[in-house]
Design brief:
Layout: E1 20-24, H1 25-35, E2 53-57, E3 60-66, E4 71-77, E5 79-82, E6 85-86, H2 90-99, E7 104-107, E8 111-113, E9 116-119, E10 139-143, H3 144-154, E11 169-174, E12 180-186, E13 189-194, E14 214-217, H4 218-234, E15 243-248, E16 252-257, E17 260-265, E18 283-289, H5 290-299, E19 305-311, E20 314-319, E21 322-327, E22 329-330, E23 334-339, H6 340-348, E24 355-361, E25 366-371, E26 374-379
Antiparallel strand pairs: 1-5, 1-7, 2-3, 2-6, 3-4, 4-17, 7-8, 8-9, 10-15, 11-12, 11-14, 12-13, 13-26, 15-16, 16-17, 18-22, 18-24, 19-20, 19-23, 20-21, 24-25, 25-26
Helix pairs in contact: 1-2, 1-4, 3-4, 5-6
């Protein structure tokens, strides 16, 4: 996280009065799992980054982890008898929480639960870093499930050629109609996933014109999708529609979903412009069901590239080792060649029952895939 937080934040003292509280293990376990995404692994991590902060609130505990590229905060309902704070070492705490049965966890100088030995965590001696959050900027509410799905779809398409996966970026920006779009590109692949129009009873997404172009680490985007899945399971079933609130101030993106809050540093240098899907020159479409496409990809022999040939209501997927045919429709006979791995990655993310449009952008040397709210552009692989 940024080393110079906004002036409104200050480093917090490591402890104070010890916490005395009781919490249900089934509520504590998902919170600890979410915090684990922010705590760096390995001995190279800073001492403070290997600890979490536990503070008391109004009938709740606030658990926080502040790592180098992400911070996570989770509020857990608790019976608090003594207000206070503690900063236990995370690795031992995670192992202990994973071992406890469902029941009541008592938190004090020791962490105790019936059926397992008590844990006496090593407390942090130095001040715990502040939790960074975007306090300015416009808030945007998005359907939680669809936002998490879009993050999970987009993150693998980031530029994995960069030195280290963490250096690649996912972009969140506003399109011309006020939709929130997530995009990433690299290795001849590009994806853009929008959240509108709303379906499944979800609220429509309206992004104001002042929303900034925001880029976050692709690794963080993938982990954020996993944390949001945990948050969604923790929400009561009567929270319909289930939403997440996004706020960006030019330096930090903060995502709030119920009792879970995630913050991550941002950059504002946009991704390179990508050719439009509806390029008017040399477009030829193939339509096939996602279920048929997944079955065909599972059966086609492995190779680095696959040739797609559509003719007479049949789509043939052919590699150098064999071929598989499925039913499809095409406006004219079409043939193109793309990376088999990239094509398979896209098909895995399709919703059940989805129909896929495969568009060859002949003039641009690209193949477009559209289905399940996402558009993907793959570079054609030359013979």
């Amino acid at each position: 996280m940024p080393t110079n937080p906004p002036p409104c934040y200050r480093a917090l003292p490591p402890g104070g009065a010890p916490v005395t509280a009781q919490v249900l293990a089934r509520h504590l376990k998902p919170a600890i799992k979410a915090l684990g995404y922010a705590v760096p692994k390995g001995s190279h991590a800073d001492t403070t980054e290997r600890h979490v902060r536990v503070t008391t609130g109004d009938r709740s505990l606030q658990l926080e982890a502040v790592g180098p590229d992400m911070a996570v905060s989770v509020r857990v309902g608790a019976l608090v008898t003594t207000e206070g704070a503690a900063c236990p070492e995370f690795a031992s705490l995670r192992r202990w929480v994973a071992s406890v049965p469902d029941g009541i966890v008592t938190i004090g100088a020791d962490w105790e639960c019936s059926g397992v030995p008590a844990l006496t965590p090593r407390d942090l001696a130095s001040p715990f870093p502040p939790f960074p959050a975007a306090t300015a900027g416009t808030a945007v509410r998005v359907p939680l499930k669809r936002f998490a799905h879009a993050l999970a779809c987009v993150a693998p398409y980031a530029d994995i050629d960069a030195k280290g996966y963490a250096t690649s970026r996912v972009q969140l920006d506003r399109d011309d109609v006020g939709d929130l779009c997530l995009s990433a590109g690299g290795l001849g692949r590009y994806i853009k996933s929008g959240l509108s129009p709303a379906d499944d009873g979800c609220l429509p997404v309206t992004v104001p014109p002042e929303w900034p172009t925001v880029l976050i680490s692709a690794r963080v985007a993938d982990q954020l999708a996993r944390i949001l899945a945990i948050a969604r399971k923790a929400m009561p079933s009567y929270w319909v529609p289930v939403v997440a609130t996004l706020r960006a101030d030019g330096h930090v993106l903060t995502v709030e979903a119920g009792d879970y809050v995630v913050s991550t540093p941002t950059t504002s240098v946009p991704l390179p412009a990508v050719r439009q899907w509806d390029d008017a020159v040399g477009c030829h479409d193939i339509h096939v069901t996602g279920d048929a496409l997944r079955r065909a990809l599972a059966a086609v022999p492995t190779d680095h590239a696959v040739t797609l040939t559509a003719r007479d209501d049949t789509l043939t997927l052919q590699t150098s080792r064999g071929s598989v045919a499925v039913h499809a429709t095409a406006t004219v006979p079409v043939s193109c060649r793309v990376s088999l791995q990239a094509f398979t990655d896209y098909a895995r993310g399709l919703r059940p029952g989805a129909t896929v449009s495969i568009r060859r952008l002949e003039a641009a040397g690209l193949v477009g895939l559209e289905g399940s709210d996402a558009r993907v552009l793959l570079a054609e692989v030359r013979q």
